[in-house]
Amino acid sequence: MTKKNEKQIITRNQLVLSKFQEMSEADFTTEILIPLFEVQGYKVDYHGGPSEGGKDFICRKGGVFGFEETCVVQVKKTKPSAAVGKTNSFAAIVSQLQQAAEKKVPSLSGDEQLPNNIYFITPYEIDVRALASRFEAVASLAPRGVRVLDGRAVVEYLIALRPDLVEKICGEAFVLKQKLLSNISNADLLSALEYVGEKRVTDFYCDLDFGVGKVTTKALLAMEFSPAIVSHSVSPGKWTAFKSLVESVQELFCIDVLVPPVVNIEENFADKYGRWLSPSNQEVIKKIDLLSKEIVEELFAFVSGSAQIVLDTLYEDLSQDLSMSFSDLKVDSRLSAQEVNRLNRLKRSNEKIDATLVSLKTCESLSLSEYGRIGEILESCRDHLQDIRNEVSILKITARSPLTELLKRLNKLGKNYSQLDILLKKKVNEPDYEMQVLGPSIAKAISEKRIWLSKGIANLSKVNSPAQVRDFFLACQRLFGVIERTLANKDLSDALGAKVRKDVPLSDLTERISMPLRKVFATGIHCAIFGEAGAGKTTTLHQYADYTAKNECEDELTLFLPLTRILTEQASYSDEKTTAVQKLESSLGIYLASGRSYCSADVIDFIKGKRRVTFIFDGVDEVIKRTPWIVEAISGLEVIYKNCQIIISSRASGSYVNNIKYLAVTLLPFTDEQVSHFIDGWFVNDSELGGLVKAHISRTPALREIVRSPLLSTILCVLAEHNVPLPSSEPDMYKERLELLLGRYDMHKKTKRVESRQAVLETTARKLAFYLHSRTTRAASPAILQEVATRMCSKGPSSSEARRIRVAVKELDDPCNILVPMTGDGDFGFGHLRHQEYLCARELCANRGIDLAPLLSSPWWKGVLELFARMTDDVSYVISEIVTKDYSNVTRYKDNLLAMIATRSRDERRHLSALIKEHCRLDDGDDFALYYEN
């Protein structure tokens, strides 16, 4: 019996065994045992009942050379006991078996013969002590064909020979669960990584170390502070969010963040707000609004009048023909060139004042800055009027009367402006929440939490309690969430003076946790697994899903869900009212019901009926561009499935990562010891070759730095197994793998299996990879791949050319295994996403006609661009093209450009990084200029 606080785990075999024990002896015999013997070719003669004579049924079938095989079966629905004298004692049962072995039975020919085999079958498990009590007797009966089958053995045979009966016994719900669990399979991954059939993942798989937090929160450990006490004001519209953040910080760190306290800040605001809202102050505000609008209108009238005076003199026939354009007007012929220039200067001055007025007119309310601008414009108008009066000698006679009117208007404007000044001094402005932010207190608290984090991680290896593990990671999740919000708030961040150290890589500062990730998952916390290409995200989730599915309760369900298969390119949602979570749930039902005798609605209802469900969504980054609603949809599942756990995996790039609020766990690169363990496990039967691989890594520093992921370690081991000279860089490894699969392995074996030339196969693979990546997908049907390859690779419309390409596509599948099955619907792709990215990078190197600008703005292309930067001699031209083309805003491409630059030499990194920084600074200036112009 298990303890109350431990969950009762019922596997399929245990469930079938319990069903056996619930049956009557007659039902167990007729519904289970007889069909089990019949499926093996026996003709069964049932003798159950009072007159059975120790034989429940006899089984017969024709033997070889005309001899008949006869079996006697005795069934006892009782648990054998070691106690002597009881009817169910094992000793009594053995005695009955001895008698059955000595008693002849009639054959089909009418003769009698001793049975060839005597079976004793019980639906219970045989007690080891009971068997040991009469072991000698059992051993002596074995040569005479006596066999003992307990319930466990019957279950195994029934599963193997009559699975339909297993389904009938267990019920539809249990069978459906087993079918859903069949989605947990490493087959695609193993194929993509080229594990040979006899290799077991458990031989070389090791739990990966990991760090807590996203890539952005890793910066916490590298952060330096220059804190200060900063005066700050918050507008009423932003106060609620700011207050919530401050309260979270104060609660987490147990410190005061603001002076005065929040209560006093709100009291001070309420007092000022009451004075601002008073009827007398609102009346003043109303008068200011009306008077300021009147002044602006008067200024426009002044500028219009002064412009008219100048234009009347500068151009002739100005008002005679309204159909004439401004460019058709002729300068008054009586004016000299010098006089025309002087009038044009007045015209430009007038236009400048007018432009300033236009920007002022868009202001909704008058602030002190706008009041000052009105005063400046008024002073400009006085100077402008004086300049016009100074040119009265060249103005038309008719201009003198308008000038007098302008002077009167200007004097009235001066009086109104003085009245506006009096009103503004009476006005009480709408208040903000005023405070001081205590930067030193926050910085000290974060530094103390960093120490707590380091100690907690160091002690995790000593913690065995799942509750303690859960509490620690929940605390980590809360800590990182609050710190991320704090750093994202400019006011708090300015008070902290937070800066990230540039001299130490973030990866070196990450606290490494060495414990099985399944212990974290077992806490029930929603988790997001991040990692770079080939870091082992999918393998880790596969291992956990498989482990959990084998050990969970009957009313629990674990589902491994590859998003690239679920959210296929063909999926469409025509109803605009369909929510994100409804789209995901619909796709889940269709995917899980595919190929089964259940409709998608039945599958969803079955999942909802479980007490607890674990959703494991693999590859968010691979579908985010095609289905940008996926993060929202996954979060929505928490509402529909109340008692569920969600685990997702993704690369940690793209702005969508900030919307994932689960506990972030980042898989870390292999240590030297883990690489050695992986290689030893791979070459467990060939330690000499394993030693050569490790020696090559040791003497190749560049390789030692990159072979720190399961994917790259696997490729290196595969190359070594095929006697390929071991490479020294990541692109070299993918290049060697590609050449190996495209024919070099066949050359070593002195065989030829492909018709296409290697160059054709490689070109076709590159084009198809670029096509798939451009559509943000990883697989397509063979028909689509054939059509795309023919269109992209053919040099002409000839049928022979098209046939050549079609053959190449087929050979990329078999025998090359470059294209591998990716979905249950028969779609093909390149296996691991990194293989597809490498081929895309090869295409960028081979086809310089591809416009890189759209790729540089997309996080989906980051991995491709990094590989491309490693494979090309120069990347500076990429920056030059971005700047010289229409894509002048370099900031849009900053993240991917810096990722490319990071792969270059130290001197090149320094030069190009400075270049990017300068362009981004210029972009900021351009944006400001554009804003000012608008």
Automatic annotation (TrEMBL):
Quote the PROSITE patterns the UniProt record gives.
Answer: NACHT
Any transmembrane segments, and where?
Answer: none
Q: What InterPro entries would the database entry show?
A: NACHT_NTPase, P-loop_NTPase
Q: Matching Gene3D superfamilies, A to Z?
A: P-loop containing nucleotide triphosphate hydrolases
**All residue ranges annotated as the NACHT domain in the record:** 529-623
Q: Which domain of life is it from?
A: Bacteria
Q: Which PANTHER family match?
A: SLR5058 PROTEIN (PTHR46844)
Q: What is this protein called?
A: NACHT domain-containing protein
